[in-house]
Amino acid sequence: MAWPIFLRDLFTDRTSAHKRAFLDSVELFKGLNAADAGRLAQSMNSRTYHAGETLFAEGEVGRALFVLESGRVALTRRGPSGETCRLTAVEPGGFFGEWALLEQTPRTATATAEEESRIHLLDRSTLETLISRHPRIGAQVMTRLAQSLSTRLRRATAAQPAPHEG
Q1: In the chain, how long is the greatest CA-to-CA distance?
Q2: pLDDT digits (tens, 9 = 90+) for 70-85
Q3: For a surface tag, which of 11, 13, 15, 76 has the fewest beta carbons within 10 Å of its beta carbon?
Q4: Cα–Cα distance for residue pair 27/16, rounded to 1 Å
Q5: In the sheet that 117-123 helps form, which strands lie side by side, from edge to edge?
Q6: Phi, psi of 136 (to 5 degrees)
Q7: Cα separation values, 27 from 23, 32, 141, Å
Q8: pTM of structure
């Protein structure tokens, strides 16, 4: 028997339901069943960054993956002369900082909110806990992450000029 709508709404945490619905739309998390998607959503912290606020700086050790729900985030890097070079802008539904889930190395870019931005964070220790308690979630997220990194690497390689033969 289905619950009447007013009772369902009374016992549903709208913030969690909204977060879960958003995460279901993110390529990295597609394919998780409802229970696993709920566990993942509950394990992620959320935060709003103001325009101009730095999410992380180049050289800091990475500890979390960032998923952008709303707003826009610029990824920049210091050039050889110290100038700021814009790499890309992340739009809603995009994610960045994924290397932090694989290894704790210094960030290769700086992330700055260009406008008020709602972010969901998945830190490495949380993912490790999910993997040990719910291996299916970890396997699915890590598989999608590997696919995403492979795609990004192919694009970057294709964008490089071909070496000249001499």
Answers
A1: 75
A2: 999 999 999 999 999 9
A3: 11
A4: 19
A5: 45-49, 117-123, 64-70, 95-96
A6: -60, -40
A7: 8, 11, 10
A8: 0.82
Residues in the chain: 166
Residue-wise pLDDT tens digits, 44-63: 999 999 999 999 999 999 99
How far apart CA 105 and CA 59 sit, in angstroms, is 8
Q: What is the pLDDT of residues 104-117, one digit of tens each?
A: 899 999 999 999 99
On whether the CB atoms of residues 40 and 32 are closer than 8 A, the answer is yes
Six-digit token string for 34: 């409802």
Q: How far is CA 127 from CA 85, 93, 98, 147, 157, in A?
A: 31, 19, 12, 17, 29
Burial 17-28 (b: 16+ CB within 10 A, else e): eebbebbeebeb
Helices (H), 82-134: 99-102, 124-133
**Is residue 39 classed as helix, strand or coil in its secondary structure?**
helix
